[in-house]
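WARN no homologs supplied; continuing
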Amino acid sequence: VQLVESGGGLAQPGGSLGLSCAASGFTFRAYAMGWFRQAPGKERDFVATIDYSAYSTDYADSVKGRFTIPRDNTKNTPYLQMNSLKPEETATYYCGRGTSKRLTPRFDDYTDWGQGTQVTVSS
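OK structure emitted
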């Protein structure tokens, strides 16, 4: 299993960034996927999750209405579109593979992780 995140960088407060996660080594369309983030000295927190078919999604309350988590099963890629970014959302963002088809916000329900991509929100 390999997950490779990309798309991080510097954004201004109120700006947007789009992240991608290239997945390989497993049957992508059979698993839920999720995005988490981790700031220095803090735990890895749930951001968003999507089920195997892209039918259902769930978001942390703090990002609802601003972030979306589409996926393209033909490209083996989940995405995270982030709008109206805030400085406190500066963190390393990780893509994770769930243990089943069902979406989940629980960290323990993810078995594989990418190396992360840094997102910095600053003016």
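The chain has a mean pLDDT of 97.
OK
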